[in-house]
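FW: tagging you since you asked about this chain on Friday. Here's the raw sequence from the shared folder, copied in full. Didn't touch anything.
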Amino acid sequence: MPELPEVETVRRGLAPAMVGARFTKVAQNRPDLRFPFPERFAKRLEGQEVTSLGRRAKYLLADLSSGEVLVMHLGMSGRFLVTKDGATAEPGSFYQTPGGQSPHDHVVFTLSNGAVITYNDTRRFGFMDLVPRPEIATCRHFAGMGIEPLGNELSGETIARLFEGKRTPLKAALLDQRLIAGLGNIYVCEALFRTGLHPEAAAGSLVSKKGQPTQKAHVLAEVIRDVLNEAVAAGGSTLRDHAQVDGTLGYFQHRFKVYDREGEACVTPGCKGTVARLVQSGRSTFYCPKCQK
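HL: got it, structure written out here
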């Protein structure tokens, strides 16, 4: 599943082609993806201008001049290709080959600036929806969703407020989208390693008896932002099928310190530990037993 940096990478790639342009034609090639398309999906888009393109957690949000928001989720293998001025972005250097093919081009957006944006999704786990802007925060996609990890709200104090009294393992708490939205398995493993926190430690251990954030809580908030921003700058981890809109895959995976490095030596200078793997809630966790006690 693409994580927040992958989605932010796609947003930044799509924005120049979409923002300020109108949908002149929308080709919907099937009735559904993971869920059915909204009623009159293509007709509700045609003629509308994209006034902004944002992101909420792992969702892309295109504000339209009609007052509706085009909500887009990439699922596991969704990708966009942008064609403009006779040139189509083609796949470049891949960590693992995406494998998108024309039979899986499910939606084609033609825009007034000459750009054509194709949504390709081999597994069809992605989806699109149209939601009135005033209802976006309370709609089924975002109701109850936690804070943005890249926003100003994430701090040691916020972590203390969210985690106080929780015996839930720290990694599970960080992956709880009701608390912090958009964090995924890869970057939580990396953030916990950099902070020196064990993934099985109780989430409440980051809060003092007086309800104040510990020093580690402050550090964790900063490290989460750092890890995500580094991944966005590098183009995301882009494992398996996920690609940037220009067809290339990012290279943040080459910077992983623990993720997917089971049995390899810890990269911390002076540490003689070995990266280990454990399973939490059915998902692999990678960590250094010596650095993260």
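FW: Residues 90-101 have pLDDT under 50 and may be disordered.
HL: agreed, and The longest helix spans residues 215-234.
FW: great, closing this out.
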